[in-house]
Amino acid sequence: MAGSIAESPIVFHDPTSEPCRSVHWLCVEARLPVRLRATWLARGDHRQPDFLKVNPRHQVPAMRHGELCLSESQAIMSYLCELYGVKDQWFGATLEERARVAMLLSWHHHAVRKHVMLLHNLPLYYVPFYHGEAKTARPSAEAVQALREGFRESLQQLEAFLHGREYLIGGRLSVADVVIAPDLTAMDIDPEAPALLAPYPGVCGWLARLRGLHSFQRAHEGLELALPAMRQHLLSRTNEP
């Protein structure tokens, strides 16, 4: 049974996780009262017995509200928006808006999330940092270029979605922006990221608007603290003979 609205849900959160930052960002922007509980993947918090009672699949974000336990960031955001009566604002107020948000969230999984984050950012940036060189061979220059060819198509499609729009559904922020953008800002670790994104002025302008939001900055504070060490690690790999 879900908890009452008087009892703030607990969100288990690692700020280096893109889906976690999406949930946190939405909660700050929409002023949804939740209790964040730090759950650091790097130190194995997601494998502890107490956490496994919430999500036995070891993944963050996760949420507990009363006896209800949820995983998957979009399910958590949908639940929180409905709990606090703001779902129309974030998931669409009209049939057309709801359909567009649903389309963008579905597209995201096989486009930006897959080609930019899972196939590019994770193997190039994040897995080597967290697991060490012994377990992660450095991709060849040819392999890196192949990965980047894969995500260029996703960025071209995102550029088209943003054409003539300030945000992904028009003139206001929606859950689509909050879900998709963190997979791109995760590239901040790479000094080459501005050059990689430069051919997509619509995407760059959209990201600049989002970065200017106080809620975005709050949700990315934890990542910003980790970035210097991650950048140094990336540069040391790049400079290896």
UniProtKB/TrEMBL annotation:
GO CC list: cytoplasm
Pfam families in the cross-refs: GST_C_2 (PF13410), GST_N_3 (PF13417)
Keyword tRNA processing: no
Subcellular location: Cytoplasm
Keyword Ion transport: no
GST C-terminal domain location: 94-229
Main location: cytoplasm
Keywords: Cytoplasm
Top-rank taxon: Eukaryota
GST N-terminal domain mapped to chain residues: 7-88
Name of the protein: Glutathione transferase
Species this chain originates from: Pyrodinium bahamense
